[in-house]
Specification:
By secondary structure, the chain is mainly beta. It has two helices and eleven strands; from the N terminus they run ααβββββββββββ. Helices cover about 10% and strands about 30% of the residues.
């Protein structure tokens, strides 16, 4: 076999070096110099096979997938909201206009636990519009508490949350509402609600159990991290 002449060998070496200069410096899997970028594809979105059976809203625990909630409607026969906002309206008139709360309207106001009636009204901005919303809670003879949150839409009053719980305690976390209730099994349920533009919606629902829960026994004198029993319940 004859060797290539020097001019031919030099030409071959030049061709190899040119190829390396063009393609050898690009990162693995990357684009070479002057190579056009591929077009960006749009992010795929879920497409329902049966739209009528699909609930596109964020459902809380226990909500049926096929349930479509109607938007909250203004209360009929409720006082109109003026320039002073909800803090300026008569709260008892609001409660009387609400079919779910009107039974408590004539129970009167209470200032301490253990009595039947309406707790002092509280005003907080839960919808993020800069105006304070109205929070009303009423304690019943059964030991349960009914709570409703009202907001103002133009000059109308709209209930955006109604819930009932035993030994109910309420807190706010920023613009969210946190409700704690007690259950007969000794547990505490903490439900957090957030304004979704239409109503107060459940964003978290936690249940905590005391150390007396079976499976949570241990050395209580020694500080321990949070543990769970065999059912995944949190041991306090």
């Amino acid at each position: 076999m004859t060797r290539p002449t020097r001019p031919l060998a030099a030409a071959l070496l030049c061709a190899v070096l040119c190829a390396l200069a063009v393609g050898g410096c690009s990162a693995p899997g990357g684009l070479g110099t002057g190579e056009p970028a591929p077009p960006v594809s749009a992010q795929l979105r879920p497409e329902s096979l049966w739209p009528l059976w699909t609930d596109r809203s964020v459902s809380g625990p226990g909500t049926s997938v096929g349930t479509r909630e109607l938007p909250p409607q203004p209360l009929e026969n409720a006082p109109e909201v003026g320039p002073g906002g909800l803090p300026a309206v008569n709260v008892q008139d609001v409660v009387r206009a609400d079919q779910q709360m009107k039974a408590f309207a004539d129970k009167g106001w209470i200032s301490a636990p253990g009595k039947v009636g309406m707790r002092p009204p509280v005003f907080r901005d839960l919808t993020g519009d800069g105006d304070r919303d109205l929070i009303v809670a009423a304690d019943a003879e059964t030991g349960r508490t009914a709570l409703t949150v009202y907001t103002a839409r133009a000059n109308r009053i709209v209930p955006i949350l109604f819930t009932v719980g035993r030994r109910l305690a309420a807190e706010t976390i920023g613009g969210d509402l946190l409700l704690r209730t007690a259950a007969a099994d000794g547990s505490e349920q903490a439900v957090r609600y957030h304004w979704d533009g239409e109503r107060m919606r459940v964003v978290s629902d936690e249940r905590r159990y005391s150390k007396s829960v079976p499976g949570c026994a241990g050395d209580l004198a020694t500080p321990q991290p949070k543990r769970t029993d065999t059912y995944g319940r949190v041991c306090e």
